[in-house]
Amino acid sequence: MPGRRRESPLKNPSRAYIALGLEGSANKLGAGVIKHAVDGSTEVLSNVRHTYITPPGEGFLPRDTAQHHREWALTVIKDAVAKANITMHDLDCICYTKGPGMGAPLQSVALVARTLSLLYEKPLVGVNHCVGHIEMGRQVTGAQNPVVLYVSGGNTQVIAYSRQCYRIFGETLDIAVGNCLDRFARVINLSNDPSPGYNIEQEAKKGKRLVPLPYTTKGMDVSLSGILTSIEAYTSDRRYRAQGSPCEESEDIITPADLCFSLQETVFSMLVEITERAMAHIGSREVLIVGGVGCNERLQEMMGIMAQERGGLVFATDERFCIDNGIMIAQAGLLSYRMGFQTPLTKSTCTQRFRTDEVHVAWRS
Amino acid sequence: MLSSSSSKPPTQQLLQSADLISQGAEAAIYKAYLRQFSTSGHGIGHGAALEALEPVLLKYRFRKHYRHLSLDTSLTRQRIAGEARALMRCMRSGVIVPGIRMVDVNEGVLGIEWIDGKSVRQILPGGAELEDISELGEVDEIHENGAADSIADYGVSRGRTVRMLIGSYSTSVDALMDMIGVEIAKMHLADIIHGDLTTSNMMLRKQTSDLVLIDFGLAYHSTLVEDKAVDLYVLERAFASTHPDSEPLFAGVLSAYEKRMCKHWLPIKKRLDDVRLRGRKRSMVG
């Protein structure tokens, strides 16, 4: 809060810093270049992404995803560097995703980062993926000290900053919300292009009927696997019409659109509810939504209504920064690099499990 | 249980005459006054015909506009009824909880006994002197938001009055943890799962120094070991996130709980260990 905030430990740099960020913890391969100028401003020089898209009804497997990342790494990085109009020698550091994520894709990208680091003699910075999302969200929206709802294919967490650590207040007890949506998209054979979540959102706009589903908030946590089972069961219901059009209101039928609608309404209500609880618990008025599911406009709308009722503000970003990208890794990496953090080559590993609250957030007061 | 359903205007009138105490995430909390009748019907042992007005706490679950209307309506009804049911069950089994004064599921209003005291969160170190994120006030606390400097009025039960001063902190805090453990155990023995055990949802009553469990908004009935273990786990997380460096406190709660649960403890302990290990709650390095 203005006036009450302690002085930030992060001083304006004495010269401009430029960092390359490499992200590949799931099916998106991203590279981005960020610049921190002397006056303390931040500029996104480039943000390139390539997504591994599987056919409808299929998810992405670690081995194939890693293969995709290896194939595209050089193209994407060259593109990012060219768009930023710099050379590799201008970089101050190379940031990569240390975790959490899928093992094989993480390893492929870490290998690329190590190779570039040795080739151009640039220091490496390993970055926590979740912290990357939070830092980029704060940078883009200008939110000061928000409660963060981090919702993606692999994570569902309600986070707030306290004492140089992003503390997790609530999270999913089983599967992530993006995972729940993606898997249901597979069940009803929606396309994975551009993303299953986006197609669910479009389908849900046509839905009218709200089918009863479990509503499973547990304190500030949620459980989603039972909802997935329950909504899947509706597809073998007698009233279910896979090709049914939602306009025939008089008939007692359930269409895929109705199920998408019901799933979104129920699951997002739960997420907004736990976010509201966290806000009330710690007395914050700002919410920041990050992560791939964060670009769902219905979720943003619901969060907006909740924030408005509490006299607060909601911050969200568009798909460029919500969905996994390289620039967020560069942003979080450069912040910690400016605080003197580096990852020595011998420790430049990656890990599938890396909790948000394990990171020392040195750059905030 | 005195129920004033069906009569819509009285509940609304009562709400209008009431003072808003706080607005939490779930509901708005009001303080209102009910006239005490000498006729029985309360089900609680206030036999005497008092002319004095009895303070009650009204919990008004207002409509959440972000939720789909039918989802919101059914959730509100379920939660009001569920909360009243859980409170009744607890009371029958001797768990110290606020008594029920009125239930109106259609309006979303639950009236319960007014507890004069402070929440455990305010009493424990770290909870009241909220750190930077929590400085804004507007906390989900039901009663007054005083600073927790003087806790001397709060004696601790078991006959002798222990003053909670810095010097004698460990003993008196231990006694408090003990009471928390016992109350939770009594509640679990009655097969009630609280659903949102936090230090904000426990109060120390001023006059008698009883530990009162409050806010049964997410409570439900279950005999499953799993649910009881998750309930304890939620409390463990709440301790860790609200009162930094106070993990040993939770150990005190557990040991009192263990004693009270007797033979029921072992399966719960095993499941609690499972719950802790499960999923993404804990980093599993190595």
Automatic annotation (TrEMBL), chain A:
Substrate binds at residues 150-154, 182, 197, 201, 296. It is found in: Cytoplasm; Nucleus. Belongs to the KAE1 / TsaD family. This is N(6)-L-threonylcarbamoyladenine synthase. Its cofactor is a divalent metal cation. InterPro entries: ATPase_NBD, Gcp-like_dom, KAE1/TsaD, Kae1_archaea_euk. Keywords: Acyltransferase, Cytoplasm, Metal-binding, Nucleus, Transferase, tRNA processing. Residues 44-330 form the Gcp-like domain.
TrEMBL record, chain B:
Residues 15-286 form the Protein kinase domain. It holds the Pfam family Kdo. InterPro entries: Kinase-like_dom_sf, Prot_kinase_dom, Tyr_kinase_AS. The keyword tRNA processing applies. One of its GO terms (molecular function) is ATP binding. GO terms for biological process: tRNA processing; tRNA threonylcarbamoyladenosine metabolic process. This is non-specific serine/threonine protein kinase. It comes from Suillus subaureus.
